[in-house]
Amino acid sequence: MKTIIKQCLVLLLVSTAFAVFAQQKAKNPYYSRTATNKIKVGNAEWKKILSPDLYAVAREGATEKAFTGKYNTFNQRGTYYCAVCGNRLFRSDSKFESSCGWPSFFEPGAKGSVVYKEDLSYNMVRTEVLCGRCGSHLGHVFDDGPKPTGKRYCMNSISLDFEADQTNPFKKN
């Protein structure tokens, strides 16, 4: 009986999480995990659609505080998408523990999923990483990552959505 109650609670929590996710995405007519078209939307429009925290990072280039993002120490298998437009960005297979305070990856999930821009802010020379579909700020890339690429894509968790890999209940581990 306790097992059935636990399973019902888990199903209720999962369905509630999906409902909240769907409601948030319904406000955003540009969000799609399958579309590949480039999106040209002005910041005034994004400001109406995005939460204030996501807008600040994604559209104004802010940075979330180190070690506070939900994906910093997150290790589930799956795919990371742009939280603004749904573009596929990274696979969990390329995520690694960098101890920098933000989720880090050694390569993007697909060619063209991210684009780069020189960032000279704060008297530093860095390479900004933007979503290849909507141009939203994701973070920065550095040349101190692991093999095989030697890159460290240091991303803001708030700029990412995650979808876990589907598990096959009939497959034996």
What does this entry look like structurally?
This protein has helices spanning 2-26, 43-49, 52-58, and strands at 78-82, 88-91, 95-96, 104-105, 114-119, 126-131, 137-142, 152-155, 160-164. It contains 3 helices and 9 strands; from the N terminus they run αααβββββββββ. Residues 6-23 have low confidence and may be disordered. The chain is α+β, with helices and mostly antiparallel strands and 173 residues long. The protein starts with a helix and ends in a 9-residue tail after the last strand. The longest helix has 25 residues, at 2-26. It is globular and about 40 Å long. The strands form 2 sheets. A 6-stranded antiparallel beta sheet has the order 3-4-8-7-6-5, with no helix packed on it.
Question: What is the topological layout?
Answer:
Layout: H1 2-26, H2 43-49, H3 52-58, E1 78-82, E2 88-91, E3 95-96, E4 104-105, E5 114-119, E6 126-131, E7 137-142, E8 152-155, E9 160-164
Antiparallel strand pairs: 1-2, 1-9, 3-4, 4-8, 5-6, 6-7, 7-8
Catalogue the unreliable spans: 6-23
Q: Which sequence of strands runs across the widest sheet?
A: 3-4-8-7-6-5
Task: Provide the helix percentage.
Answer: 10-25%
Class of secondary structure makeup: alpha+beta
Mean pLDDT: 87
What separation lies between the terminal Cα atoms? 27 Å
Question: Tally of extended strands?
Answer: 9
Main sheet specs:
6 strands, antiparallel
The radius of gyration is: 17 Å
Number of helices: 3
Approximately how much beta-strand content do the residues carry? 15-25%
What sequence of helices (H) and strands (E) makes up the elements? HHHEEEEEEEEE
What gross morphology would you assign?
A: globular
